[in-house]
Each structure stands twice: as structure tokens, then as C-alpha cells.
Amino acid sequence: EKDGYDHFMLKEIAEQPKAVADTLLGRIGADGRLLLDQMRLSDEELREMDKVVVIACGTAYHAGMVAKYAIEHWTRVPCEVELASEFRYRDPVVGRRTLVVAISQSGETMDTLMALRYAREQGARVLAICNTNGATIPRESDAVFYTYAGPEVAVASTKAFLTQLIACYLVGLYLGQVRGTKWGDEVRSVVRDLSDLPSKVDQVLETMEPVRALARELSTATSVLFVGRHVGFPVALEGALKLKELAYMHAEGFAAAELKHGPIALIEDGVPVVVVVPSPRGRSVLHDKIVSNIQEIRARGARTIVIAEEGDEAVVPYADHIVRVPECPTLLQPVVATVPLQVFACEMASARGFDVDQPRNLAKSVTVE
Ligand code: F6R
């Protein structure tokens, strides 16, 4: 049951630190190496792969977009991500040396299932990342990596998404480990950073009251835009999807630099724009670029809501509202940066009087193509 929460979604948002910790549990050895042999793909097979293709729908697709950045960076194996519904209708190049990763919370999504069947017919090896033990997608795959989010009841996916991210990181790092690419200090430190994530998500959850207040204040807005770069881009898409499905509000996510190629025309006085800002440490070019994007948006009258790392002072002059998240390496930041967007959408839906757990027209798993 709801354990005293008003909605399953709120309960599931609150369960995220545990969901993340459970998904990491038993998968990192004492020496920092990953233990994923339960996946049933041999090291030899993994070494032979020359391409990774991630297929998924909706929120799971956003996890797949993050996977692409992480897998290519850590393994140097080319990685594509595609909407499952588009995949098999375009004659994709897949074969024996393609690792197809099918991400699905329910394990029953028909678009994803049909795509994975197609991939297997072409000779590809399929790894399912799934939250539901024994569901059709893992049963029909060559290998499976289970996420341990526990049952997700609210239609909008929250805790499953965070665990899908964790699964993608672990699979990417494992591939790096097995292939011996980039398995050095950088990757070892990422493994340590993964273990810190449950407490970081907890920290975010403790500071959500201002986000709720902001959602109530903006509940009559007609449109909200979300922008990000790099892995902040899928986070922006996810923030927009949550708002559409729960608050029935026009919302769109963009890669920040694409704004100037058209969508910036949408920005008029007072339009809320949520900006996901990467860490100023590490790849600081990325950070500097987005700070100038915020400046451009603000100059056109947008109301800027900035998700930024603690201690990032560069964003302060251009932010109407700042939501702070703990320090995190860029690739892992989606795990903390998505949480405020979930809370924002959930509160917005309540403020507008909609059913948070059962949004109109939606079902928990989409079993038609
Ligand atoms: C959004 C949402 C959907 C699902 C999508 C895939 O909050 O829940 O977009 O992510 O229908 O579902 P699964 O992961 O079960 O394949």
C-alpha cells in the first residue's frame, strides 16, 4: 500500500535511494571489479561485440540515451540508441557481433518485444535490462540484467528509471572491464562514485520543498521547456515527458544548443525553462557552454529554473530559481538531476487536480504495438 503517502508515485520517488542501492548490491566486488556473470553472456562473447544497440520506449529510452554516452566513453565500442518502435521498420544493421540491449521496466512492452525478436532473427545477442522477474522480454533474451526497483505501481516511471540508469552504467563498465578498454583509474573511481549515489539521492529528496512550492506557483503555466546538454539532454526529455503525462501540460525537452536553431522562438516573457547544468568540474567546456545558453534564454524573458551542482556559483546571476544537487561526475548526474523533475511533475499534477498515479489515456504497460 501507500505507506502514508498520498500517491504511489510519491512513495516510489521516496524509495529511490533503496532501489538504487539494491540494484548495485552484489554487483561490485571488494576490489572494485564488477561481478555480472549472472548475465549469462560469456566474456568471450562480449569481447567479440563490435557494436551496441539500445532499444527501448518512453522513459526507458531516456535511460538508453544516457547509456550511449557512458558506453562509448568507457568502452570505445560504438553505441546507438533507438526507439524500439522504429528499430525493425528501417532495415537496421545488426548481426552476430551486435549486442542489443533491450530496456523495459515491465518486460512486456510490445514495441520492445517485437524489436528484440527482430534483432535475434538477425543473429544479434540480446541483453534485457528488466525490473520484472520472468517477464516476456527477459525470457526471450539471451541474457538478463535485473533491476531491483521493486514493483512500480504508479503509471509514471520513477524508481525504475533510476535503476535502469544504474544497470546501464554497470553494463557499460563491465563491457569495459571485460574488453580491457579504459579499465584504469577513471573507471575505478566511477565504481566508487556509483556506491555514493543512494545517499546523494537521499540528499536531493530532503531538499524538495522549494521545488514543490515552485510547481504550485507555476501550475497555471501553459508550457514548460526543459533543456540540457550531453547526458543532461535525456534528463530534459524525461522532465518534459513526466510533465506531459502527469500534468497534461505542454512540455518539451531540447538539447540546449538546438534552441538557437528554432525553438528559441517559443521563448516569451515568463515561460518557465528548466535547465539541467552539468558539473563545473571535469569537462568544464560543457558547463561554460550551458551557462551561456542560460544567459541567452534569460535575455529573451524566460523564467529560468536551474538544476545545478552545489557550489556552482557561475549560474547564480542567470537563475530565477536554483535547485541544488550534490556533486557528481557528469555521466552519473542524471541519477540525481532527474529527481527534482519527478517531484516537480508530481506536484504540478496535484496542484492542477489530476490523478497522479493513473493519468488519463495511459496504462502501466503498453502491450500493443
Ligand atoms: C513514462 C513511462 C513510459 C514507459 C514506457 C516503457 O513514465 O512509464 O514511457 O517508460 O512505456 O515501458 P517499459 O519500461 O515497461 O517497457
UniProtKB/TrEMBL annotation:
Function (record text): Catalyzes the first step in hexosamine metabolism, converting fructose-6P into glucosamine-6P using glutamine as a nitrogen source.
Gene name of this polypeptide: glmS
Subcellular location: Cytoplasm
Full-sequence range covered: 247 to 615 of 615
GO biological process assignments: carbohydrate metabolic process; fructose 6-phosphate metabolic process; protein N-linked glycosylation; UDP-N-acetylglucosamine metabolic process
Reaction(s) the record says it catalyses: D-fructose 6-phosphate + L-glutamine = D-glucosamine 6-phosphate + L-glutamate
Protein name, UniProt field: Glutamine--fructose-6-phosphate aminotransferase [isomerizing]
Active site: K364 (for fru-6p isomerization activity)
MF-aspect GO terms: carbohydrate derivative binding; glutamine-fructose-6-phosphate transaminase (isomerizing) activity
The keyword Transferase belongs to this UniProt entry's keyword annotation: yes
GO cellular component assignments: cytosol
Annotated EC: 2.6.1.16
Main location: cytoplasm
Complex formation: Homodimer.
Segments forming domain SIS: 42-181, 214-359
Record keywords: Aminotransferase, Cytoplasm, Glutamine amidotransferase, Repeat, Transferase
